[in-house]
């Protein structure tokens, strides 16, 4: 009888977590948009639909993708065997139980107990290998996962005590932590993907200083949000977000190559990363009082930046790690365009039309559904 380790789905972390994260992206946004438009029963999960939506997008969807990526990347960095078999299945079940907990007839304390273990477990599993291999340069990733766990606790504590301000601080801080994590990972892999995808000669190594400044700036932004410095516009904080946007702009300028516009796996990553620049610039404008709704900056980051980078990254990583040609299907390329349209609709259309939310949610759900349609067989099947 074959071992569970021999089942392709449980052979490495990216397989189950990319499928779970993409599937949850479709379901969660569909439920949220249907509720907003009054198409679902009045019954709501513990804390209300807004609390559920706020919590589940960063701590359900984003953390699944982060787990899948890091559980695949860390073995490459350390040379140690990645999590697989029953331990991997167990970690997925911990994540799934946290998603299902919202449907259970439990109180806020029990919900918190079921939600909190996933990120500390992930940090423990990754840290074990990084410490054993003495990969000290990757320790900041463990710090960011630990801070994400703290943001989740803050969010759930605010929900349990019906404190909307603390809920909001925890979620917004988490989003900027995820953006910082994606900046670190993107700074490593996007130039490599461009160089390999266009068959360019390796360029001179970039200075590590801008990446370190970007990481510290993102951590500082998240910390200031978490302690309440983002409840009202503060003009002096605009300098921090202008610094972040300037560092993103410098990266985009350095990475640009006309050839990327011929390769969907490259232009999707490039345009998604550009949303991080847009979000930071929008936050600077809000701090200066020049942008009326902070939610526009938040959703530029969440929908365009995080959503776009997730879809582009999991499409590229899944092909590479299953030994397939780096040629996504036409359906997945359409998904890249749809998630871009979802971001544009949420940021540019919503201020002028109530239909903007529906269009954005529909484009988002279709984008991840197209990924599932094209990649479920790839992620659950053997490596070529």
From TrEMBL:
Transmembrane segments: 12-37, 57-74, 86-104, 110-127, 139-159, 171-190, 211-229, 235-253, 265-288, 300-319, 331-349, 355-375
Keyword field: Membrane, Transmembrane, Transmembrane helix
Organism superkingdom: Bacteria
Annotated protein name in UniProt: NnrS family protein
């Amino acid at each position: 009888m074959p071992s569970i380790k021999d089942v392709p789905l449980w052979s490495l972390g990216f397989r189950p977590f990319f499928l779970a994260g993409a599937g949850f992206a479709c379901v969660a946004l569909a439920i949220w948009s249907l509720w907003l438009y009054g198409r679902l029963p009045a019954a709501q999960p513990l804390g209300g639909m807004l609390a559920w939506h706020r919590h589940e997008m960063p701590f359900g969807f984003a953390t699944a993708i982060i787990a899948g990526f890091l559980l695949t990347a860390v073995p490459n960095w350390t040379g140690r065997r990645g999590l697989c078999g029953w331990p991997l299945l167990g970690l997925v079940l911990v994540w799934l139980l946290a998603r299902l907990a919202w449907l259970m007839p439990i109180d806020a304390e029990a919900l918190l107990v079921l939600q909190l273990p996933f990120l500390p477990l992930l940090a423990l599993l990754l840290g074990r290998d990084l410490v054993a291999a003495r990969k000290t340069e990757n320790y900041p990733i463990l710090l960011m996962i630990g801070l994400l766990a703290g943001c989740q606790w803050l969010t759930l504590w605010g929900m349990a005590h019906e404190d909307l301000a603390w809920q909001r601080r925890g979620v917004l801080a988490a989003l900027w932590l995820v953006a910082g994590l994606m900046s670190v990972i993107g700074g490593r892999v996007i130039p490599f993907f461009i160089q390999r995808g266009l068959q360019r000669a390796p360029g001179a190594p970039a200075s590590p200083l801008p990446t370190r400044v970007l990481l510290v700036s993102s951590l500082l932004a998240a910390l200031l949000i978490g302690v309440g410095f983002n409840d009202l516009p503060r003009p002096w904080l605009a300098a921090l977000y202008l610094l972040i946007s300037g560092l993103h702009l410098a990266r985009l300028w350095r990475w640009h190559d006309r050839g990327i516009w011929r390769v969907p796996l490259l232009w999707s990553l490039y345009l998604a990363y550009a949303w991080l620049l847009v979000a930071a610039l929008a936050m600077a404008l809000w701090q200066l009082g020049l942008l009326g709704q902070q939610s526009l900056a938040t959703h530029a980051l969440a929908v365009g930046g995080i959503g776009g980078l997730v879809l582009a990254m999991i499409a590229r990583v899944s092909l590479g790690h299953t030994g397939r040609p780096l040629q996504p299907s036409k359906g997945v390329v359409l998904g890249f365009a749809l998630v871009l349209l979802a971001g544009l609709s949420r940021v540019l259309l919503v201020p002028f039309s109530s239909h903007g939310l529906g269009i954005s949610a529909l484009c988002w759900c279709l984008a991840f559904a197209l990924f599932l349609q094209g990649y479920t067989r790839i992620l659950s099947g053997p490596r070529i």
